[in-house]
Structure formats: structure tokens, C-alpha cells
Automatic annotation (TrEMBL):
Gene3D superfamilies in UniProt: Calcium-transporting ATPase, cytoplasmic domain N, Calcium-transporting ATPase, cytoplasmic transduction domain A, HAD superfamily/HAD-like
GO cellular component terms attached to this protein's record: plasma membrane
Catalytic activity annotation: Cd(2+)(in) + ATP + H2O = Cd(2+)(out) + ADP + phosphate + H(+)
Membrane topology: Multi-pass membrane protein
The protein's name in its UniProt record: Cd(2+)-exporting ATPase
Alphabetically ordered keywords of this record: ATP-binding, Cadmium, Cell membrane, Ion transport, Membrane, Metal-binding, Nucleotide-binding, Phosphoprotein, Translocase, Transmembrane, Transmembrane helix, Transport
Length: 603
């Protein structure tokens, strides 16, 4: 009876091996004949060997647990790529389009450039475009990572996949479905996740030599003790098979890609586009980071920082008159003064200005209420005023200029009525960002600018950077980045992706701001911050460093667990059960460790 039960069990196990291991054997045997050794080759030899020495049960267990291990690997990579599927699902598949006098639902593939798309409150925007009519706020978190909805009015750009929060918007479609910002992001993220990072390439090269070595070690464990020391053949063949199983590089092979894919996907969900594992790894090792000043550390648009009326002068009347004069000017600083007047609620547009004229390189003049008024540089008033600028006022002007501000005076031939200082002001979060970067291990932060040294120092000190380089031409910025790379090996550059393209390309990692609004930034940068928000930078550095730590942990653990298990061969304690659980357990642990990157948030 026992013989029949034993035969029945063996047949059942053999059937399990044949059915469950069919695909494994086909691939493993093909690779074996081609002398291409991988994990399937190891498992195929182990299972056939187990059957050969009569260990049908353990052979079947190896097949089943290897299948579970592969399913776990597939699940983990699927989980890691989940963020990209989330991006794919955020855009509607159809939109309400007005053509002529008709409003009809049209699939996005059939929407044409120039079509008018109607988006009601609470609905998602299906295509990229510009607002043709309406006023609303739009939640752009899916694209830029911004948590606060952004106001949109006529002429403003909107993106597919974002949510219209309030009013009805009529949007003129400007891009086809395959060219939308979200489509480009998805394409670039998919490419990035498929790209092999340096650490992954190292693991693959290592596995190429590691697997044949394991086969040699297993053969030695099976043959040497019986052949030279008279040990039991069956027992040591079994040990050799266990070596094959425990030596399977499943955990090692998945250790890097699961971390890379998870990190890139998490970054995309938080409004940061990392265009490959190599850039993620390089970012994790950055020691020096250079910043363009204008539009990166600063807001990129001038604003009135000081408005100082002379004693006895009504500040509102003076600001209204200056704004009325500047309304006729095309000077870049004019918009800052008019914006200041609008913020104060002043109706300057109804003030009549006669005989308006521009004084090249110095300022403007015009008649208001029959009196000639001037707005311009202090040098203009050295000419206009008979006795020049009073010394006490000149001291105020010099003090403002030493702060890196552009100073203008306003007045009449009788005297100066007030002083206005304008500057490209620092972003609210720039100093906080620089402090966080230093805390994360960035040793040197450098501000690069073409501005004069006085202006550069004023902004650089406010920002808290460690070094300031002023009066640079684009070629000088490029040269400085090359010097940084020589000194620190890994040096990054943060800019707008347009004017800074040469310096971004020369840096170890080029980071562009405002990627959602410019195709150039998406194309030229290694990493794009989709919102015009410098605050995403510390999150990116933190994520990259954590990814590098986890990759190193995974590789070390994968190799360490193999070494410990292989040492069990010496006393003859290694079994197929221990071997397969060591392999499967290691795969599970490195997978879960890699998925921890999903928990890193932009705080």
C-alpha cells in the first residue's frame, strides 16, 4: 500500500512539475543549450536534478514557490508603475465641442485645432488650449503638483487633465491629443522607467558572471565531497541543487528597477518629471547646485519695492500721476509702477497726459494739468533741476541703489516730488529652499547672473546662497558649470530651460522650471519642475537620495542573504526548502523596501 501511495504521490508531484514548470523549462533549457545562464536556467537544473534523485515533492515546491516569486515580482513592478496609469486616467476621453450653432460630445481623437471646448464647473479639461471666454480657477495639481487652484481668464493657458473649479470656460484647442502636455509627460515617464540606470546596468553585468559561477559552485558542492571524501552522493547532489536555488539572482535583479520605477512614478505624481534612472541617481549624488537668478531665485518680473514721496507731497496723487505718465511708456519698469497703482486702487487711466515724450536712456516727460512732469533716472534730474539733486535725497537714492534696486525719481522743474525703487524681487520660498538643500547635503549653492555685482549681492544675500557670480555672459555660465563639475564631479544647474540651455546641458543634471508651460523645458532638461515652483527642488533631492540609499540596501541585502545561505552548505544544513524561502523572502523584502519610495511626499 505504501508503495502505491508513494508512486501516486510521485506521479502527482511530477504532474505539478510538468504543468507548473512548463514555461520555466522551455526558457531554461533554451538558455542552457545556448549557454545563456540566468535564473530560469538555475531553476530548471534544480528541478530536474531533484526529480532525478527522487525528491519529487521538493522539486514541485521549487516550481510552485518560483511561480509565486515571479508573480510577486510582476505585482511589485506593476505597483511601482501604478502612478503612470493614474496619469493616463486623468484626461477625459471626450469633450463638449461647439461647432457652428451645435454643441456635441466629441472623442478627443476627433477634436481639431481651433475647436471651442466648453468646460463646466467640476469637469476635467480634455485638451490643452487657451481660455477664449470665461473666468474660473483651475486645479492643476495633476500636471504641476500645485495644491492651490490657479485663476484663469481670457488668453491664459490650460492643460488637459486639470479640473475646472468654478465658472464655465470656453477653451480654444491649441494641441492635438497626442501633443498635450500630459501626453508628453506620460511618454517621457514611460521612457524614463524603461531606461536602464547605471546601478541596474551594473547588476545586469554582475548577474551575467554571477550565474555561471553559481552553477560551478553547485557542481563542486555536488561532486567534490562524494568524489574525494567518500560522502553520500544523493545527499551532496541534493546540496548542490539547493545551491542552485539559493543562488538564483531574483532579488538582485529586481533590487534596482523596483526602486527606480517607484521613484520616477512618485516624482511625476508630485509635479516633477525625471527623464531617466541615470538622472535620478546623479541627482542623489549632487554636491553643488547653480541657480540662474532671474525667474529662478527671483520672480522674473520687476515690482515696486519702495515709494518715498517728498515731505508735503500727497502719495496717492503722486503715484497716480507717475502711473499716468508710465501708461504711455514701453519701458519694462512701467508695468511695475502701473501694477502698484492698481494695487492701491488708483484710477490713473483717466488722468490726461499732454505732450508725452520719451527721453532716450533717461526717462519720460509729459504735461499733467498744464505742468510739465518728469519720471526717470536720477541723472535726468541732475539736468532738469537748476541746483541738481539735494544731498539728503542723493543719500537715499544711493542707499537704494546699493541694495541692488533700480531707482527712479518723479518731479517737475521745481523739484523732486518722490523716489521710486523697482527690483526683481526674490521668490517667497527661495531662502527656505536653499536652507533645505544645504540640510540635505548640498555643499555649495551658487547664483549665476548677468546683472551687476551690487544687484547680484543684494539678491544672493537674501537667498542665502554660498557663492555669487555676477556680470556673466551665457558663455561664462557654461564655463563656470564646467569648472564646478571638475571640482565637485557632480554639479547641477537650475534655470528656465530656454536661456540657460547650454549651461543646463553642460551640468551633470539640468533642472528646468515651469516645464508645464514650455516644450523647450521638457526637451532640454534632465529634470523638469512642472510648476513654476522652486519648492519642488528639495523634494526631488530628498527622493533621489532616498532612492540611492534603498538601491544600495537592496543590492547589499540580496548578496548578503545569498552568502549566508551558501555558508549553510559547509555543515550540510542547506535544504531546498531553506533555499527557496531565502530566495523568495529576499525578493519580497527588496520589493517592499523599494515601494517605500511611494511614501515620500512633497511637504
Amino acid at each position: 500500500m505504501n508503495g502505491e501511495e508513494s508512486l501516486f504521490s510521485a506521479l502527482a508531484y511530477a504532474a505539478s512539475i510538468a504543468i507548473g514548470g512548463c514555461r520555466l523549462f522551455i526558457t531554461g533549457l533554451k538558455n542552457l543549450f545556448r549557454l545563456q545562464f540566468d535564473m530560469r536556467t538555475l531553476m530548471t537544473i534544480a528541478v530536474i536534478g531533484a526529480a532525478f534523485i527522487g525528491e519529487w515533492g521538493e522539486g514541485a515546491t521549487v516550481v510552485i514557490l518560483f511561480a509565486i516569486s515571479e508573480a510577486l515580482e510582476t505585482y511589485s513592478m506593476d505597483k511601482a508603475r501604478q502612478s503612470i496609469r493614474t496619469l493616463m486616467d486623468i484626461s477625459p476621453r471626450e469633450a463638449l465641442i461647439r461647432r457652428g450653432n451645435q454643441e456635441l460630445m466629441v472623442e478627443v481623437e476627433d477634436i481639431q485645432l481651433g475647436d471651442i471646448m466648453i468646460v463646466k464647473p467640476g469637469q476635467k479639461i480634455a485638451m490643452d488650449g487657451t481660455v477664449d471666454k470665461g473666468l474660473s480657477s483651475v486645479n492643476q495639481a495633476a500636471i504641476t503638483g500645485e495644491s492651490v487652484p490657479v485663476s484663469k481668464t481670457k488668453g491664459d493657458e490650460v492643460f488637459a487633465g486639470t479640473i475646472n473649479e468654478e465658472g464655465v470656460l470656453e477653451i480654444k484647442v491649441t494641441k492635438r491629443v497626442e501633443d498635450t502636455t500630459i501626453a508628453k509627460i506620460i511618454h517621457l515617464v514611460e521612457e524614463a522607467q524603461a531606461e536602464r540606470a547605471p546601478s541596474q546596468a551594473f547588476v545586469d553585468r554582475f548577474a551575467k558572471y554571477y550565474t555561471p559561477i553559481i552553477i560551478v559552485v553547485a557542481f563542486g558542492a555536488a561532486v567534490v565531497p562524494p568524489l574525494f571524501f567518500g560522502a553520500d552522493w544523493s545527499e551532496w547532489i541534493y546540496q548542490g541543487l539547493a545551491v542552485l536555488v539559493v543562488g538564483c539572482p531574483c532579488a538582485l535583479v529586481i533590487s534596482t528597477p523596483v526602486a527606480i520605477v517607484t521613484a520616477i512614478g512618485n516624482a511625476a505624481k508630485n509635479g516633477v518629471l525625471i527623464k531617466g534612472g541615470i538622472h535620478l541617481e546623479e541627482m542623489g549624488g549632487i554636491k553643488a547646485l547653480a541657480f540662474d537668478k532671474t525667474g529662478t531665485l527671483t520672480k522674473g518680473s520687476p515690482a515696486v519695492t519702495d515709494f518715498i514721496p517728498s515731505p508735503g507731497t500727497d502719495s496717492k496723487q503722486l503715484l497716480s500721476a507717475v502711473a499716468a505718465l508710465e501708461n504711455g511708456s514701453r519701458h519694462p519698469l512701467a508695468s511695475a509702477i502701473m501694477k502698484k497703482a492698481e494695487q492701491e486702487g488708483l484710477d490713473y487711466q483717466n488722468i490726461e497726459v499732454e505732450d508725452f515724450a520719451s527721453i532716450t536712456g533717461k526717462g519720460i516727460k509729459g504735461k499733467i494739468g498744464g505742468e510739465t512732469c518728469y519720471v526717470g533716472s536720477p541723472n535726468l534730474f541732475d539736468e532738469v533741476l537748476q541746483n541738481g539733486i539735494p544731498e539728503e535725497l542723493r543719500t537715499v537714492i544711493l542707499d537704494l541703489q546699493n541694495q541692488g534696486k533700480t531707482v527712479m525719481a518723479a518731479g517737475t522743474p521745481a523739484g523732486i516730488m518722490g523716489v521710486i525703487a523697482v527690483a526683481d524681487v526674490l521668490r517667497e520660498n527661495s531662502r527656505d529652499v536653499i536652507q533645505k538643500l544645504h540640510a540635505l547635503g548640498i555643499e555649495k549653492t551658487i547664483m549665476l547672473t548677468g546683472d551687476n555685482l551690487g544687484t547680484a549681492k543684494a539678491i544672493g544675500v537674501q537667498a542665502g546662497v554660498t557663492d555669487i557670480k555676477a556680470e556673466l555672459l551665457p558663455a561664462d555660465k557654461l564655463s563656470y558649470i564646467k569648472d564646478l563639475r571638475e571640482k565637485y564631479k557632480r554639479a547641477g544647474m537650475v534655470g528656465d530651460g530656454v536661456n540657460d540651455a547650454p549651461a543646463l546641458a553642460a551640468s551633470t543634471v539640468g533642472i528646468a522650471m515651469g516645464g508645464a508651460g514650455t516644450d523647450t523645458a521638457l526637451e532640454t532638461a534632465d529634470i523638469a519642475l512642472m510648476a513654476d515652483d522652486l519648492g519642488k527642488l528639495p523634494f526631488t533631492v530628498k527622493l533621489s537620495k532616498k532612492a540611492m540609499t534603498i538601491i544600495k540596501q537592496n543590492i547589499t541585502f540580496s548578496l548578503g542573504i545569498k552568502l549566508v545561505a551558501l555558508l549553510l552548505v559547509i555543515p550540510g544544513w542547506l535544504t531546498l526548502w531553506i533555499a527557496i524561502f531565502a530566495d523568495m523572502g529576499a525578493t519580497l523584502i527588496v520589493t517592499l523596501n523599494g515601494l517605500r519610495l511611494l511614501r515620500i511626499r512633497d511637504k
